[in-house]
Write a structure and sequence with these properties.
This protein is α/β, with parallel strands linked by helices. Helix content is 49%, strand content 11%. The protein is built from 18 helices and 13 strands.
Length: 494
Amino acid sequence: MKSAPLVPGGHPDWAKPKPVTGDAPLPLSREIDPPTPFPVDALGPIGADVVKAMQTVIQAPVALLGQTILAAMNQVAQPHANVVVDGRVSPLSEFFLTLGESGERKSAGDSWALMPVRARQRLLMQQYASEREQYEMAAQLFEAQAKRILGDKKLSAEARQAKLAELNKPTAPIMPMLIVSEPTSEALQRQLAHGLPSIGLINDEAGQLLGGFAMSSEKKLGTLTTLSRLWDRGEFDRVRVGDGSGTYYGRRLTLHLMAQPVVASMLLADPLAREQGFLARCLVSFPQSTAGTRRYVEADLGHTPEYRRYAERLTDLLERPWPLLEDDHELDPPEISLTPAAKRTWVALYNDIEHALGKDRELAPVRALASKAPEHISRLAGTFAVFEGEANVSESHVDRAATLMQHYLGVALRLWGTGQVSAELKLAQEMLNWLRDKMGPGRAIPLADIYRNGPAAIRSAGTARRVMQLLTHHGWVVAAEHPTAREAFELVAV
């Protein structure tokens, strides 16, 4: 299967403001065009078939289900190989961001996609509980023996040290967490430092993470830097008093955050996330809603041949021993290479993308993501190869990965406008939402009440005045008379 040209043709319509007719207020942000279909067949026979079966039963958007399946495939594949192109070695790990309104059945898709992973984690945790109990008993015995040796006054200091050296200090078992959901940067580092070296950070309601402590102003840079370095090289630095400091190598992280668009927009429009390069490492999908078109289907997805085949393949890879360095839990994955035909296809794609990055060309608006598109392609192709049990990355794997990358670039081009909204327009939108929620139309509100009681970001007279003037210019509010205030505004009933 040959992929279509990677560069979406032409500049999208949303790059220009939508025309406004009549007396309707002007939009504060650009509308987003309907999404292009998710290329589900690019997932390969196992992945595509299970997505289609899931969509028939769950009836969530295909793109949402495709993302969950691809993320699961990536997580089980990432500890088993690195992909190499001309000596440049990359982990297989990928970061995914899926936008969907509440009620899009994100949780249902996530639950089915990761059911084999969670079943494996449950089994490992049961084994861990038994190993932990044995460890606690052995540790108590060790401490008792060490205490007895140290208290033996008949022994010289040298003899005590020799006897202590003969004791076998037990090693605590590693907590086998395969999936974590809402860690801080510190918790994620601790898990990767002292837990399993390959995990998935998966959250089907990522608002708590994106709006939480890990992304607070004082922690955001550290969180983004840690995540980006894990994506780049599978390593991170940790400085922590008491429980281990240093550089940790051979770690792998699959990230999949599912969030409502209004929540995800905070991240997509965040200058730090953009400039630091985190967003360029994310593959974003924004499916069209299926709400209102769904009907209950009397079928057990778990008993379909498509799902059973998928679950069996995930389980096979989950049960395969990980390539670890001796006496350590650092991953040392073997390298998987591209076949000559795959290499030629990849090089041609690389050159096409680079050409499209030039000034005023198709991919210039999403240059950061497009610059990493060849590496995304090699990582996705490597994921397919491992998942499908192939020794090398084939031309078909690269073609399918390129087809997916074309979709992600198209999504990025559609969303680019929303991430370029000015700071004052964002404040205006926040103010408009507050007026709608707290005041409603037909009531005059003094400017002083706005900056005293309104959104926290608009707590000065100057800022409030500029924002209200902007809303007035766009037709959302009008100047109003008030018995006690010189400046007052009224929300237009729309």
